[in-house]
Design goal:
Blueprint lengths: L1 H6 L6 H13 L13 H5 L3 H25 L4 H15 L4 H14 L8 H13 L2
């Protein structure tokens, strides 16, 4: 796309113009900084792809905690609970799209909790699902 910009504006395709428009619009959304914990309300304001990535990052972090615990040979219940949730997702063969849909539904159904930290909401949504 950069080459198209440098060569001639007349050679732009509609897709290139759309891509540039999306890129510029995405700059208007304030992204989370590294290590920032979003509230449910902040999370709802993100673009769909960013919401999916944020939830995926939470699941990845829990999986990493579990693997670290296993490698150390410890059984801290505060970490084991995350391993149980990740295990539940694997046992049920839930895709990232299904997990995101579940979390989005939980956030909508429990709108009074939007001020809570997003990892807490993800935990609650998955715990509710895995108890069934």
């Amino acid at each position: 796309m950069a080459a198209a910009i440098l060569v001639s504006p007349r050679r732009w395709s509609r897709w290139a113009a759309l891509g540039l428009g999306v890129a510029i619009a995405s700059l208007a959304v304030a992204p989370a900084t590294a290590g920032e914990i979003l509230s449910g309300e902040d999370w709802r304001r993100l673009a769909p792809a960013a919401r999916a990535a944020y939830v995926g990052g939470i699941i990845d972090a829990w999986s990493g905690l579990t693997l670290t615990q296993e490698s150390l040979g410890t059984k801290d219940p505060a970490i084991t609970v995350f391993g149980d949730l990740v295990g539940c997702l694997r046992e049920r063969s839930m895709t990232a799209t299904q997990v995101l849909s579940l979390v989005e539904r939980y956030a909508e159904d429990n709108s009074g909790l939007r001020g809570k930290d997003m990892p807490d909401l993800v935990f609650a949504a998955l715990t509710q699902r895995c108890r069934r």
